[in-house]
Amino acid sequence: MKFSIKRTAFVNSLNIVSRAISSKTTIPILTGLKIVATKDGLILTGSNADISIETRIKASNADNKLAIASTGSIVLPARFFSSIVKKLPQDTMTLDVTDNFQTRITSGSSSFDINGLDPTNYPHLPEIDSDDSITLSGDIFKEIIQQTVIAVSDQESRPILNGVHFVLSDNQLVAVATDSHRLSQRKVKIDDSDKSFDFIIPGDSLVELSRMIKEHQDIQMRISENQVLFTLDETSFYSRLLEGNYPDTSRLIPTTSSTTLQFEAPVLLSAIERASLLSHESRNNVVKFTLKPSQKIATISGNSPDVGKVEENLQPDSMDGEDLTISYNPDYMKDALRSFGKTMINISFTSPLRPFTLVPTEEKENFVQLITPVRTF
C-alpha cells in the first residue's frame, strides 16, 4: 500500500477517528488506527468497542491532493502515528507499507519507520441490519444531547441510567435522562416519520457524537437490535445500545404546584453561582431557597461552617402561591439553568421534599428539567 496526500486533509480525518481510540482497552489492536487504501480513496477507522468511527477521504476531491499508488490496508499505533503526522514539515506526506507491515512516513526531508499490525486482526465494524433511516437536523440533535446528557448517571450500579432514553412514535422524538436525583426531558417533532423506535444510547457516546456535528449539518440515524449508526457526510459513527428497560419517568414529573416563580435563566444562574462559592466548601453542598410570594422576594442562602454564610435577595419576574423553603444541590441547578440559555423560565414547587421543575415559558411542554431537593433535617 502506498499513497501521498495533503497533510492537513489527512490530519482532519485523523482527528475525527481518534475520538474513538483509547489507550485503555482490553483489545490491544484497538489502540491502533486502521487505514484502508482503495482506488477511490482512503478509509480511516478507530474503535474502542463501545463506539467506532469510520471516515472517508475521497481521491476525487482535488483539495485532498490524494494519489493512490497501490491499494492495501494497515493498522498503525494511533498515538505515535498521530504525533508524527502532526509534526511533519511539509504540507504533503507519503505513506508506504511493505509486505511485513513496516510503514514509512515521509514528508520533505523527514522520514519515519514504524511497525504496523496485521489489519485482518482488526475487528469488523458492526453490521446495521435495518434499512430504516431517520434524517435529523444536526443542530437540533446536538441541542437535545446537550440538554439531556447532563442528567445521565455516572454510577455503574444501575447501568441502564448511564444513557439517554430515546422514544420515537407518532412523529415525536422524546429524549429522557435521569440519575435518580434529577431528570431532563426534551421532545421534538420529526416530520414525515411513521417509524417507531425505543432505544438507549450511552451518554459518553452522545458526548463524542455532539462534538462531531457541524453547524447546519443533517445527520442520518439507523437502528439495529444493539447498535445505532449516525452518518455525517463522509463519516460513520457507530455506538452500542444499552440493553434493558428504562424506568418509566413520566410519573416523576409533577402535574400540579403550590408555588411558582419566573426568572431570566442567566440572572438566577449568576446568583446560584455566587451562593455555591461557599456551599462547595461545606460537606453537604446545599443551597437554600426561601420563597415569600406575598413579598415577591426569593432568598438564596448558603452556609459553610468553616467559611461563612451567603444570602442574596432576588426579585423574580413573577411569583405566586404559598411560602416555601427548599434545599437543593446547586450544581444540579446550575447544569439545568445552563441548558436553557438566555430563556425566561418557570420554576414550579409542590412541597419542600418533592421534586421541582424548570421549564421555558415558551414551548414549556417540550422541555423540562426536574431536580430532587435535599433533606436537611
UniProtKB/TrEMBL annotation:
GO terms for molecular function: 3'-5' exonuclease activity; DNA binding; DNA-directed DNA polymerase activity. Keywords: Cytoplasm, DNA replication, DNA-binding, DNA-directed DNA polymerase, Nucleotidyltransferase, Transferase. Gene3D superfamilies: 3.70.10.10, DNA Polymerase III, subunit A, domain 2. Residues 1-126 form the DNA polymerase III beta sliding clamp N-terminal domain. GO terms for cellular component: cytoplasm; DNA polymerase III complex. Pfam families: DNA_pol3_beta, DNA_pol3_beta_2, DNA_pol3_beta_3. Its main location: cytoplasm. It is found in: Cytoplasm. GO terms for biological process: DNA strand elongation involved in DNA replication. Residues 251-375 form the DNA polymerase III beta sliding clamp C-terminal domain. Residues 136-248 form the DNA polymerase III beta sliding clamp central domain. Confers DNA tethering and processivity to DNA polymerases and other proteins. Acts as a clamp, forming a ring around DNA (a reaction catalyzed by the clamp-loading complex) which diffuses in an ATP-independent manner freely and bidirectionally along dsDNA. Initially characterized for its ability to contact the catalytic subunit of DNA polymerase III (Pol III), a complex, multichain enzyme responsible for most of the replicative synthesis in bacteria; Pol III exhibits 3'-5' exonuclease proofreading activity. Forms a ring-shaped head-to-tail homodimer around DNA. Belongs to the beta sliding clamp family. This is Beta sliding clamp. It comes from Philodulcilactobacillus myokoensis. The gene is dnaN.
